[in-house]
Amino acid sequence: xRALITGITGMVGSHLADYLxxxxxxxxxxxxxxxxxxDNIRHLIPRIESSDRINILYGDLxxxxxxxxxxxxxxxxxxxxxxxQSYPQTSFDSPIDTLNTNILGTARLLEAIxxxxxxxxxxxxxxxxxxxxxxxxxxxxISEDTAFHPxxxxxxxxxxxxxxxxxxxEAYGLKAITTRMFTHTGPRRGDVFAESSxxxxxxxxxAGLIPPVIKTGNLDSLRTFADVRDAVVAYHLLVTVNPxxxxxxxxxxxxxxxxxxxxxxLISLSTMKTIRIETDPARLxxxxxxxxxxxxxxxxxxxxxxxxxxxxxxxxxxMQYWRKRVSSGERFLSR
Length: 335
Known about the structure:
Blueprint: E1 2-6, H1 11-23, E2 27-32, H2 45-49, E3 54-58, H3 64-74, E4 78-81, H4 88-93, H5 95-114, E5 122-126, H6 153-172, E6 175-181, E7 184-185, H7 194-206, E8 213-216, E9 222-227, H8 228-240, E10 248-251, E11 255-258, H9 259-268, E12 276-279, E13 291-292, H10 297-303, H11 311-327
Parallel strand pairs: 1-2, 1-4, 2-3, 4-5, 5-6, 6-10, 7-9, 8-12, 9-13
Antiparallel strand pairs: 9-11
């Protein structure tokens, strides 16, 4: 069996590669842009260079011809479409690029699949819980049929991704299945996301690189946290347990708290006891998806999946990840 992971150099893509290499005998093909940093898969470089079940192919969602070549070279049985412009805050500054990459990029990939001989491949289309955006408290927990109310250009782009994935499953019979993963994090999380930014700032404070002040955005947003290592287990089950073309699922963790409470957990793990918190206006979104609590019964009933890694363990591992990177001498912006 052969699997293609678009966006393999991202947090989720890299952990998915790790999981598939350990738990399956599949040949793994990872698609990335030629300029993508290999930080998250540096530990796999020896295997990549010796073609030990993992191969890197260069492609771009905005270049249709490159997608055709990637599909031809990988000939996958399973396709995990994770590549995206995935930073909500960035999407306010670069809305056109975000919409183009995430909506039209997904359409280009699915069109390339449809025009190939890979019509029997099982395709995971990664949408986002951000599609639900602003919901009222009486709509919690959020089910698959909760109305979309996107609150950022990124979220709008994922509405398009979501609908395109379902459309290609229903209209053309592609085995495309869409997921709305709620907040998931852990080691390798990009520092533009709140919990990873906080952990990085704490690690830099501990190392004496910045003053003992953590810059934050909206701390009142309510989130349900999952671990990325549980998320990739879910994605494997998604494509292997009776995949149904055109289906769509909410996936997420079980620990719900505000962003502020999450920050307090990270601070409690620190050796520094004099850390102050300061709101940074640049970190506030014009609109926020502030109630992100999922109902995952549909996916759990279909696959038997349940998250196993505790919130405390996820936060501990995230802190250790950043401590290791900061202590290595790497330089980071204090964003």
